[in-house]
Amino acid sequence: MGCFRVLLAIIFPPLAVLGKGCGSFVIVFLLTLCGWVPGVIAALVILNNPN
C-alpha cells in the first residue's frame, strides 16, 4: 500500500480501490455516500488486504 493510495483513500475513497474490482468500488462508494468516515475506513481496510 503506497503513500499515494493512502492519500487517495483519505481524499476520495472509491477512487483508491478502483483497481481492486467492481465489488470493492461499489461497497466503498455506498459507504462514502452514507458518510465520509465509513468510506475511508473501508477503503483502507480493502487496500491493506493482501488478497
UniProtKB/TrEMBL annotation:
<dbReference type="Pfam" id="PF01679">
    <property type="entry name" value="Pmp3"/>
</dbReference>
<keyword id="KW-1133">Transmembrane helix</keyword>
<protein>
    <submittedName>
        <fullName>YqaE/Pmp3 family membrane protein</fullName>
    </submittedName>
</protein>
<feature type="transmembrane region" description="Helical">
    <location>
        <begin position="29"/>
        <end position="47"/>
    </location>
</feature>
<dbReference type="GO" id="GO:0016020">
    <property type="term" value="C:membrane"/>
</dbReference>
<keyword id="KW-0472">Membrane</keyword>
<dbReference type="InterPro" id="IPR000612">
    <property type="entry name" value="PMP3"/>
</dbReference>
<keyword id="KW-0812">Transmembrane</keyword>
<comment type="similarity">
    <text>Belongs to the UPF0057 (PMP3) family.</text>
</comment>
